[in-house]
Amino acid sequence: MRSMPSFDLVCLGAGGGPNEADLSAYLLKPSETRWEDGIIALEAGSGIGALTAILDRKPDTFHDLKLSLDTNTPSSIRAAQIYSYIQSFLISHSHLDHVLSLVLSAGSLSTPPSLYQAPFKRRRITGTKEVLDDLSTMIFSDRIWPNLASWSSESTVPDYLYLYDPIPTPKPTKDVVSEPDTKPRYHKVNTVVSVLAMPISH
């Protein structure tokens, strides 16, 4: 009998402000994989600062992680290395309490691991087209923040740029009575995890 999938989850923050060290952010991986194989970030409000504080309080949080660092290395350096293992940011909406660390760390993280043999090396921002459009036009626009993300997956695009990875959403049918197409449209984040976009009011 096939066992149920299980995951390891570390909560970096669960608030909505004003404490920037406690904003919505969770690090996820399937239990059978290693953190250094690639991490999925569920939201990205808090980031390296919150992770540093967690490692200061509970140094063995990532007890199964094999860091290429000395045990005396400052928590901030260890946190930055762990955060660099993020391969994909899965974002529900573009409010700052969900994207702040994604923005601040853009362009500064080392190249992520190839998550479960994913076809691209670049770190991805995965979300609905509407969410990604918000990030593209309002944040990564060279106005609020430098344009450090791209829609193009071409190999000529620098590795340090985020890759926008849109999740398909239900489309209206062509019937006379326009009903939403409720057929599930799962989107692969990697070869192990798939997600389904569900519109809600927030």
What labels would you give this structure?
seven-stranded mixed β-sheet; 202 residues; alpha/beta; 19% helix; single chain
Protein architecture, described:
- The protein has 202 residues and is α/β, with parallel strands linked by helices.
- It contains four helices and nine strands.
- Helix 1 packs across helix 2 (75-83).
Structure, briefly:
19% of the residues lie in helices and 23% in strands. It has 202 residues and is α/β, with parallel strands linked by helices. Strand 1 (7-16) and strand 2 (23-30) form a beta hairpin.
Radius of gyration from the CA trace? 18 Å
Q: Write down the oligomeric state.
A: single chain
Binned strand content = 15-25%
The helical percent reads: 10-25%
User: Low-confidence parts lasting 5 or more residues at pLDDT below 50?
Assistant: none
Count the E strands. Answer: 9
What is the strand arrangement across the widest sheet?
1-2-3-4-5-7-6
Please outline the helices and strands:
Blueprint lengths: L6 E10 L6 E8 L8 E6 L3 H10 L17 H9 L2 E5 L5 H9 L19 E5 H11 L9 E2 L11 E6 L19 E2 L5 E2 L7
Parallel strand pairs: 3-4, 4-5, 5-7, 6-7
Antiparallel strand pairs: 1-2, 2-3, 8-9
Helix pairs in contact: 1-2
